[in-house]
């Protein structure tokens, strides 16, 4: 293949693969959990997808380079907060290494089960891991959704595309 990417004998180059997915928009979420010492940890994820309705389940990918990776992968439960456009600052805060993600700028409270809940997010899914599969420089986590907190708002979804945050425009006609 030589049109816009390069294939070598070992497969698609990492840079071509990364470039291909830079142009594939995805939803944005913040994943939170307690670490082993009971403190909050979290990160921004754009690799979250629904995989089953019965039982309700999702899949997400956690990069091993993420500072919260070890704690999230060890957690027996975590929250996936699905973000809307007005949550862009939250997405940026949890995506930035070295910031105090749970500092004064972040409204959060622990659930009775201990996971940090971000009430500004319109939806939070409480998840229990079903499997953790290392794949290259990440781990793919499949999780059962065991609870849903929803504000009932139908805001504009926050989307990640080409290294930036965007909002969706009006829906296209169905026919």
Structure summary:
One of its GO terms (molecular function) is FMN binding. With 175 residues, the chain is mainly β.
| Overall body shape | globular
Number of strands: 14
Succession of helices and strands: EEHEEEEEHEHEEEEEE
Global mean pLDDT: 90
Amount of helix: 10-25%
- How far is it from the N-terminal to the C-terminal residue, by CA? 35 Å
Could you describe the largest sheet, including whether it forms a barrel?
A: 7 strands, antiparallel
Strand content: 35-45%
Work out the helix count.
3
Q: CATH topology, what is it called? A: Pnp Oxidase, Chain A
Overall CATH class: Mainly Beta
Task: Describe the protein in words.
- This protein has 175 residues and is mainly beta.
- The chain has one domain (25-150): Electron Transport, Fmn-binding Protein, Chain A (Pnp Oxidase, Chain A, Roll), CATH 2.30.110.
- It is 13% helix and 43% strand.
- It is built from three helices and 14 strands.
- The strands form four sheets. Strands 5-4-8-11-12-7-6 form a seven-stranded antiparallel sheet. A three-stranded antiparallel sheet has the order 3-13-14, with no helix packed on it. Strands 1-2 form a two-stranded antiparallel sheet.
- The radius of gyration is 17 Å and the shape is globular.
């Amino acid at each position: 293949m030589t049109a816009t990417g390069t294939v070598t004998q070992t497969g698609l180059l990492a840079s071509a693969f990364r470039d291909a997915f830079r142009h594939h928009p995805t939803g944005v979420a913040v994943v939170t959990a307690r670490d082993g010492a009971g403190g909050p940890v979290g990160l921004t994820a754009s690799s979250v997808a629904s995989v089953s309705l019965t039982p309700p389940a999702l899949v997400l990918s956690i990069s091993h380079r993420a500072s919260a990776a070890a704690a999230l992968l060890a957690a027996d439960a975590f929250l996936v907060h699905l973000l809307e456009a007005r949550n862009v600052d939250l997405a940026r805060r949890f995506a930035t290494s070295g910031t105090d993600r749970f500092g004064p700028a972040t409204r959060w409270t622990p659930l009775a089960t201990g996971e940090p809940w971000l009430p500004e997010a319109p939806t939070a899914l409480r998840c229990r891991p079903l499997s953790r599969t290392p794949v290259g420089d990440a781990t793919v986590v499949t999780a059962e959704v065991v609870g849903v907190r929803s504000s009932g708002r139908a805001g504009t979804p926050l989307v990640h595309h080409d290294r930036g945050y965007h909002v969706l425009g009006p829906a296209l006609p169905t026919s």
